[in-house]
Amino acid sequence: MRTTVDLDYDTLIAAKEIARMENTSLGKVISRLVRQALTGNATAQAASSPATSATGFVPFEARGVVVSNELIDRLRDNDGV
Asked: What's the pLDDT at 6?
């Protein structure tokens, strides 16, 4: 079903990154995340097993900011790298 939703920039970027990593559509990712949040499964899944990538790396805890390519580019520009 098509609809228009206004998302905060950081949540959109995070959802796009998940879609890219899972090689799926943005709509499917957002639907899954909303469904998990509405049913309470998001906290149960997070507590049951730590998220790991294909390399076995366990990511750091969220710090309240999404690290996007734009943020990395801006930090490089600021540091002259």
From this structure: 93
- 20 SS3 class: helix
d(CA 5, CA 26): 13
How far is Cα 70 from Cα 51, in angstroms, rounded to an integer? Answer: 24
Residue from 5, 10, 7 nearest 70 by CA: 10
Amino acid sitting at position 3: T
Of the candidates 38, 16, 17, 37, the residue with the CA atom closest to the CA atom of residue 27? 16
What letter would DSSP give residue 41? Answer: H
pLDDT band (50, 70, 90) for residue 26: very high
Examine the pLDDT at 24 and tell me if it is beyond 60.
Answer: yes
